[in-house]
Design goal:
Length: 318
């Protein structure tokens, strides 16, 4: 099967691309290689992480409908995995218009082209941020998500609404995956664990928000990929599903694991809660479990793999 992956040079995009090619699927990757974080890391995912694999790669932006249409027409993909987006809660507070253009209009472009070109299944990235300050634990797909607290969260909720429209009106099969704090090798430098590592070797203190009183459902990339494959093959008519470890970790415990694996202690700067952030995220993944999926990677093993990769990639040592 031929599958188009937007955000294909991204953390999750490159990982799912590799898994699909390992099982014999053809992939077409698309990415605009923007500078939200170091584009070199994106290029290296293509050149090093995916070295030896056979795939098509287009440098393109999901905001530009005509360019997207040329890719659909030339490649005729059967399914779409839409991961391209402006990510990050805090940056969205500073650049809300950009998030609207990319996350909302970009997704609408892809849904419309998927309708026109008869895409069999449209999988797209939502986010645990849609739950806002939901106090009910764990977060369930049946919970009300009408009160986002950041432009990023609002745009992710909007993509779920757009997908519902296309499923209901055009009978397009769509599934949104609400990702919960994905981490691992080749990850995103704007994520906390990656920032911690960067600051450690730069001799800078790490910034710990809400004075460390945070719970997060840290989910290792391999578990994420396995769950995505299950959903891609299931071809749901219209679904939204959580994908997380279902085991919340205290932020300070998570930091201790990182310190242990690096063999160093961080300098710490304790700060209040940031605007748009939430104190806890915990996933109810019972929907995904029905497909036979089970997150198995403990944070000790996941962080160990990240640390090994980080030291090799950046040529640093403990």
């Amino acid at each position: 099967m031929k599958i188009l992956i937007t955000g294909g040079a991204g953390f999750i995009g490159s990982a799912i691309a590799k898994a699909l090619m390992d099982r014999g699927d053809k992939v077409v990757l698309m990415d605009n290689f923007n500078d939200y974080y170091d584009p070199k890391l994106k290029r290296d995912r293509i050149k090093k992480f995916l070295v030896g694999y056979d795939f098509k790669l287009y440098k393109s932006d999901i905001r530009y409908y005509k360019k997207l249409e040329r890719i659909f027409k030339k490649e005729s993909p059967e399914k779409v995995i839409h991961l391209a987006a402006m990510a990050g809660v805090r940056y969205s507070l500073e650049n809300p218009l950009l998030y609207g253009e990319v996350n909302f209009m970009g997704t609408l472009n892809l849904l419309e082209l998927s309708r026109i070109y008869g895409i069999k299944n449209f999988i797209y990235a939502s986010s645990s941020s849609v739950y806002g300050v939901n106090k009910k634990i764990p977060f369930s797909e049946t919970d009300n998500v009408d009160n986002p607290i950041s432009p990023y969260a609002a745009t992710k909720k909007s993509t779920e609404l757009l997908a519902h429209v296309y499923s209901y009106t055009h009978k397009m099969k769509t599934t949104g995956l609400r990702f919960f704090t994905v981490y691992g090798p080749w990850g995103r430098p704007d994520m906390a664990y990656f920032k911690f590592a960067n600051n450690l070797f730069a001799g800078k203190p790490i910034e710990i928000y809400n004075k460390g009183k945070m719970l997060r459902d840290f989910t290792y990339i391999d578990d994420i990929v396995e769950g995505m494959l299950k959903v891609l093959d299931a071809d749901f008519d219209c679904e939204v599903m959580n994908i997380g470890a279902e085991k919340p970790e205290k932020l300070m415990d998570y930091i201790e694991v990182i310190e242990d694996k690096f063999g160093r202690k961080f300098k710490k700067k304790m700060l209040p809660m940031q605007p748009g952030d939430v104190p806890q995220t915990v996933a109810d993944v019972s929907k995904l479990r029905k497909l036979g999926w089970q997150p198995t990677t403990k944070i000790e093993k996941g962080i160990e793999k990240f640390v090994d990769w980080y030291q090799e990639y950046y040529k640093v040592r403990k």
